[in-house]
Amino acid sequence: MNFDSTSSYDYKGMCAELGIEYSSFLAFLNNQNPMKTVTLTDDDKPLSDAIDMFLANQKQLLKLKKISPNTQKLYEGVMKRLKTYIEGLDKKYTIASLDEVMFGEFLLDCRKEKNTILSDRTQNTYTAVLKRFLGYCYTMELSKRDHRSKFKFNTVGLMPRYLPDAQVKAFLSEAKQRRNGYLWHTIFSFLIGTGCRVSEVIKIRICDFDLENNVLRIYKSKGKKDRTIPLYPEVVRSVKRYLNLTGLQELHHNHTGYLFTHGYGMDRQKNLSIRSIERMVVNICKKLGFIERYTVHSFRHTFAVRCLMAGMKIEYLCQVMGHTDPKTTYIYLQMLPVDLQKEISEKYPFAFENLLLNIFNLEE
């Protein structure tokens, strides 16, 4: 194709506006492969340099408490892995040259590294981190265009993964047989009886309980929000029994020690890790031969499904679970913690309470 570079039309300006390399544009017109070389432009940072700047910014945000340590750790892990991957390639990538093809190859490389298939949710997590990075690049004018729209999330099914009653009983029974079985049995009973996130459970302290009103205060939950949830009597009995077995005869309102710990009596200053609970779930499911791939979050799903099956209204369940959506009008349905506990205990406890009584197998 003949191309008149002396034309009065501003081809370079057009390429800059569209985010296209001028050399790639020329190569395309001359039927050449524009991907053989990647030419850096003055307005587009090398990808590796941009990643370093982004990670430095995330560390600064962590110091300012704008993001959580877990979030910073996630960003750092994904972006360092991406940087290592691109530095091992022959090409020199810029922000603009990062596309879905290259990112897909990166995900395949991660799969080989872990010797497993990355789930849709994991791939979406990586994509979310990449979009965060690209948003930073655009905001800081490291790139003239916002490239976030190039990358799409995978469609993930929303069916909850919950345990049938028989599997719940088998799981709790096997938990009792483990070392410190009373601890593990109570943790999983608590998860399925409250619907709390595991990240919330490990941070619960003795003083967070209000047994006069049968409620539990959850501080700095997802989204850094506090909430108060009602407690079923069987959950309270399970917790009290566990505390008695660990040398604490009653709940002290001023006791700041953790609820779930390997400590004894008043010495409860070191909590369990999320990883240790996740490993126990995997080990027990493997021992029981469960085909379904359950995670610790499956207990939260189980709680929610059973509450709905027992007749609890969705607006009440949303408050218990700490959800701020699904409906815009949900904010008008907020209730005070004590009123919420009364509504649930008086109108909706029976089917679920009987289930808890059965699966906990507690002695009166």
Walk me through what this model shows.
- The model is unreliable at 33-43 and 327-336 (pLDDT under 50).
- The protein starts with 10 loop residues before the first helix and ends with a helix.
- The chain has helices at residues 11-18, 22-29, 47-63, 69-87, 100-114, 120-139, 165-176, 181-194, 198-201, 233-245, 274-288, 298-309, 314-321, 337-347, 350-360; strands at residues 209-210, 215-218, 227-230.
- Helices cover 51% and strands 3% of the residues.
- With 364 residues, the protein is mainly alpha-helical.
- It has a three-stranded antiparallel sheet.
- Helix 8 (181-194) packs across helix 12 (298-309) and helix 10 (233-245) runs parallel beside helix 15 (350-360).
- The chain folds into two domains: 38-150, DNA polymerase, domain 1 (Orthogonal Bundle), CATH 1.10.150; 165-360, hpI Integrase, Chain A (Orthogonal Bundle).
- It is elongated.
- It is built from 15 helices and three strands.
- The strand line-up of the biggest sheet is 1-2-3
Coarse shape: elongated
- What is the CATH C-level name of the largest domain? Mainly Alpha
CATH architecture verdict of the largest domain = Orthogonal Bundle
Q: Portion of residues in helices?
A: 40-55%
Give the quaternary arrangement of the chains: single chain
- Count of DSSP helices? 15
At the fourth CATH level, what is the homologous superfamily of the largest domain? Intergrase catalytic core
Family: Belongs to the 'phage' integrase family.
Protein name: Integrase
Domain Core-binding (CB): 45-138
Keywords: DNA recombination, DNA-binding
